[in-house]
Amino acid sequence: MTTNTVADVAVASLHAMGVGTLADFRSLYTDDAINREALAEPPDARGTGPDALFATAAWLRTAFSDLSWEVHEVVQEGDLVVIHSTMSGRQTGPFVSFTPDAKVAVAFPPRGRTFSVTQTHWMRTKGDRVSEHWANRDDLGMSQQLGWNPATPLYLCRMLLASRRERSKAARA
């Protein structure tokens, strides 16, 4: 990935979530990089550094195919980069949310639906790499587009079964 400015690095790190390799993440994130949004993510995404951020990408890619971000605006002030974007994709796998103590909270089984929601990503940089990330997302809009909310009685049953399945997998791991 070719980058020229800190803003380019931040934008590249966002696009890497959809298609980047672990090598890409290692070139884009500092060894102590932190994702402030990882509290509802799997345990391996809660650490620091490129491997933890790549685990976030793997978690998203497990649930969503055709995952991409359209960048609308980028603002840089010193070591802070803000990106206004639209995230889109199609849910083809279960989306699993986790509790603060890293247990499976709920699993949303796939329905094959697409979504497109706006997000604002804030990234702090050190040198020529991203060291910190946090975001504002339209999670309600996404859940409505994917049919999670309001859930039909049948979908609630599917969620219950998917959540049990994911908890069983986590217990065996």
TrEMBL record:
<dbReference type="InterPro" id="IPR009959">
    <property type="entry name" value="Cyclase_SnoaL-like"/>
</dbReference>
<dbReference type="Pfam" id="PF07366">
    <property type="entry name" value="SnoaL"/>
</dbReference>
<dbReference type="InterPro" id="IPR032710">
    <property type="entry name" value="NTF2-like_dom_sf"/>
</dbReference>
<protein>
    <submittedName>
        <fullName>SnoaL-like polyketide cyclase</fullName>
    </submittedName>
</protein>
<dbReference type="GO" id="GO:0030638">
    <property type="term" value="P:polyketide metabolic process"/>
</dbReference>
